[in-house]
Amino acid sequence: MLLKLLSDKSLILFFQNRIPSEIGRCSNLSVMSLESNDLSRSIPSELGSLSQLQWLMLFGNRLSGSIPAELGLLTNLTYLRLENNMLRGELPDLGTLTNLEHLSLQSTSVTGSIPEGFCELIEEDQMQVGVECGRINCDCGCICYNSYMA
């Protein structure tokens, strides 16, 4: 695995099928777009230290395990796309992500409830949330998908 810093806000990652925990040292990173890269294993909790991160795009991989609670520390996050992965477990408390505009969890086995504070944002069209029908409780306008394949 090799991390090569291009600037304060971008980097090139060379690694084999996993997100390295060392990525948490890229403290000025604002966009992480690793979708459809055949990544497996779990999402490293060290991503929670990327305090400048605004977009986290990990959809379309084979990531497994649970969503790290540390993602709730990413208060600048506006886009969180985790759909189409093999993620499981309870949705961590993401209620501190008050800048979030888009959350995608469909085609996963994640269960739980959307934070109550998100409902007002969803109802005011300030946030869009996509969930897997019957797995995530959302009574306030989430987009419900029946796409899980396992």
Walk me through what this model shows.
With 150 residues, the protein is mainly beta. It has a single domain (2-145), classed as Ribonuclease Inhibitor (Leucine-rich repeat, LRR (right-handed beta-alpha superhelix), Alpha-Beta Horseshoe). 5% of the residues lie in helices and 28% in strands. The protein has one helix and twelve strands. The protein has one helix at 116-123; strands spanning 2-5, 11-14, 31-33, 55-57, 64-65, 79-81, 86-90, 102-104, 109-113, 128-132, 136-137, 143-145. The chain has a six-stranded parallel sheet with strand order 3-4-6-8-10-12, with no helix packed on it. The longest helix is centred in the last third of the chain and has 8 residues, at 116-123. It is globular. The N and C termini lie far apart (31 Å).
Secondary-structure map:
Elements: E1 2-5, E2 11-14, E3 31-33, E4 55-57, E5 64-65, E6 79-81, E7 86-90, E8 102-104, E9 109-113, H1 116-123, E10 128-132, E11 136-137, E12 143-145
Parallel strand pairs: 3-4, 4-6, 5-7, 6-8, 7-9, 8-10, 9-11, 10-12
Antiparallel strand pairs: 1-2
